[in-house]
Specification:
homodimer, alpha+beta, 7-stranded mixed beta sheet, 5-stranded mixed beta sheet, 15 helices
Chain lengths: ~475, ~475
């Protein structure tokens, strides 16, 4: 298969970004469609990214004082009705088990769309005294939300995620936790996924069903649209009152706790694809890439080439690099294309002449730069290079994003910015009508509020006094 | 709370083993009952054991050439009917989703009780040529089997597990994989859980629904009953024919693949509890213990004690030990009892006098032996001690088990052995009637066949020619 043929398997990234995305996720074997409409199968290459994400995040959660646990998949339908906003938000998306063990169930059971209700029930049982607080737990699990239009990683009926759930003795402490975890997420997105994010409070319309306040993390994709890659919710006493999470405080008074929840999902993999990819396919940040360096033998049939490649692989693996040698019976050119499409950060080419010259050719996937590198101290070079690539990817994403942010002081300005595939910062009066108008006319939503940048005098939509500064954008 | 009061929270292990088990799992906060009947919540102390199990097993799987993936939770009911034995075995236990997104589904969906059917469907799509084989994948996930009588870890409607699914070009290779993974499990059980296991082929009656042959791992619990802690199935072409998993072989002929599957679950945690526990509660093998060494300050209010404990903790953590200092405002005696109940392998007591003498008191949970240990080279001592405890636990379990194995050459002999809470090895003619008789009269089942030990001349039950040597035991 010629290089040309190979590359044209993927739709043009500038011409049809949506098709490019679908082509990339399927052809790089990250994912496939499951037999049930709206479900996905995460294939080994995609799942390995998820494992790298989990490992890194899990360490951060534990450092932040969280412990993992596991709560049941099935939740009695009646639990949802205990928190009015929550049931309204989730009931339409729930998948319901009505029969089990060959008989009709007395009460239908929901497959968890999120676990506030069942975890709240357990917390109510476990928490007695202020000495039991704070409670900080996380679970890695699958959740189910029946969606009409689905896309792999971005919106599927079942997806994998983590959900943290905490209880605190005071409002201040719970709010502190909400912001702390928002920042844990932000550091992770930037340091590990190399994706810069805007963080901020969501509007009432966009907040989580049942939250007092939702804080979101918004990342700009290559097409200028925003992807919500994580959320952290301050739930106040909404769930503690609905589920009776009470504790005996130091002053001997029985009080309701203050709860938070925070989550991120396999959606982040969609974010990686759409934040870093290019015409050739995936560009994976080294920290999450299943293979960080692929070694391709050139003139592999010549004596000593495969052996030298394997030697190099061992050296790299010892230095902590996820390295592999591609020994398949295919041409180097074919392999170059495949590994470029699969986004492996570093390609190492090694042939008889390289061995003679005590060097290897090293190509960076992100810049496509190719350099001859001495085999003396080679592993150190590659270790450093992974760090450089990681850093450069974040910087490049940040520059690309920052060039696509505009400010607007009129509805027309907002609409023009959105039409230009940009994030638009604008003053907002805080009313639902203005927010809805941007959606109706421009298909854009309020992503987060960034009041700390300074609130403009006027609402860009209605001209009344502004109470917030909002980032408007089209979103996934 | 006095020591006496504390210990009596747990039922007598000799008097009422069942209640002892329930008391231990609940009071050590490994687990709690979920709101839906038959479900469990795995609490942080229990989940940390699962995380240690996963980490260790996952490494072994990857070394054995397996890659992780994730397949959908929901399976169309029609998939089950494609393999006749499979549907018969699992249909009665399935939980069924009939409604989702506010509407009745066209086809009801099963929550996976196991994933052969959905994974087989995907494999059929992915596999074209002999070059695509073998396929070796594993998934860590939740599964659902609606059970009438449930007990935490041992039998719950939902549980966590891993399921490996492989496809091979030949019968030999598939059978090799089945046995290879059986042995990976066996090594894990013995090296990591310190639980000796019998491995062997299951009888037709006891095999997996849809398998050609099932190989099981059977561990003796403290009460002499057997716990099946894992299974590895050779599925032949049963599933490849049902799901059309075909490949173009080297000889250009289109052939059905040969498949295997293998699984272990959170049930293993039940096995740890019932293989090592004692009157005081849990006894955890160091390799899976969430806390390997607990440091308890004595006379903590005295200057320098807490500081020295923390110093020791840092030293131990640096040496790779999961160590914690218990700084709670409770008496040392209270803490001793709690950590004994929770099965922490090593307890370290440190008071002002110990500091003066440059030593600490070290207690082994498994033997309850207490020794004064010099603080010079202390971390090395503890590292070694964890290895010794791990080794001794396996040895102790093996001796205890081997003392409870008898041979029988009559039905009476089998029944007497079972009544004495032993494993009974006996000749068997291979017929279902004889197998059923042991079950009816003695409530014992054929656990595995151990023909390699030499098949006795006669069936112990009917006296006809024996074709197998079987281990009979009562089982969980």
């Amino acid at each position: 298969m010629s290089q040309k043929q190979f590359v044209t398997q993927i739709a043009d990234i500038n011409d049809n970004f949506t098709q490019w995305y679908t082509d990339v996720v399927l052809k790089t074997e990250l994912v496939d469609y499951g037999p049930v409409k709206g479900t996905m199968v995460i294939r080994p290459y995609g799942y390995a990214i998820w494992e790298n994400i989990q490992k890194d995040m899990d360490r951060r959660f534990k450092e932040a004082g969280s412990k993992n646990a596991y709560f049941p998949l099935l939740i009695p339908m009646s639990f949802f009705t205990k928190e009015a906003e929550h049931v309204e938000g989730f009931a339409p998306e729930v998948a319901v088990v009505t029969h089990a063990g060959g008989a009709k169930l007395e009460e239908p059971l929901a497959i968890r769309p999120t676990s506030e209700t069942v975890i709240g029930t357990m917390y109510a049982k476990w928490i007695q005294s202020y000495r039991d607080l704070p409670v900080i737990m996380n679970q890695w699990c699958n959740v189910m939300r029946w969606e009409k239009t689905t896309r792999p990683f971005l919106r599927t009926s079942e997806f994998l995620w983590q959900e943290g759930h905490t209880v605190h003795a005071s409002e201040e402490e719970a709010m502190e936790e909400t912001i702390k975890m928002l920042n844990v997420y932000k550091s992770f997105m930037e340091e590990t996924l190399a994706i810069p994010v805007f963080t901020g409070r969501k509007t009432e319309k966009e907040k989580f069903a049942g939250a007092v306040a939702t804080f979101g993390l918004e990342a700009m994709m290559l097409d200028g649209k925003s992807l919500q890659v994580g959320t952290s919710h301050y739930l106040g006493q909404n769930f503690s009152k609905a589920f009776d999470i009470k504790f005996l405080d130091k002053d001997s008074a029985l009080k309701h706790g203050y709860t938070t929840s925070w989550g991120t999902s396999t959606r982040m993999i969609g974010g990686i694809i759409m934040a870093h990819g290019d015409a050739r396919g995936l560009v994976l940040p080294p920290m999450v890439a299943p293979i960080q360096a692929i070694i391709v033998p050139v003139a592999a049939h010549k004596g000593g080439v495969i052996e030298k490649c394997k030697e190099l692989e061992t050296e790299l693996v010892k230095a902590g690099i996820r390295a592999e040698t591609d020994v398949r019976d295919m041409s180097p050119g074919w392999k170059f294309n495949e590994w470029e499409m699969k986004g492996v950060p570093i390609r190492i080419e090694l042939g008889p002449r390289d061995i003679e010259n005590n060097q290897a050719m090293v190509m960076r996937r992100d810049t496509l730069e190719k350099t001859a590198v001495s085999l003396d101290g080679f592993a150190d070079y590659i270790v450093e290079l992974t760090k450089t690539v990681q850093k450069d990817l974040l910087e490049k994403s940040r520059q690309r994003r920052d060039a696509k942010i505009v400010e607007a002081d009129s509805l027309e300005g907002i609409l023009q910015g959105v039409e230009d595939k940009k994030f638009v910062k604008a003053g907002w009066c805080g009313c639902r009508e203005c927010e809805d108008k941007v959606k109706e006319v421009g298909q854009a939503t309020a992503r987060v509020m960034c009041d700390e940048e300074g609130v403009p005098e006027r609402c860009a939509i209605c001209g009344k006094k502004a109470t917030h500064k909002v980032i408007f954008a089209r979103a996934y």
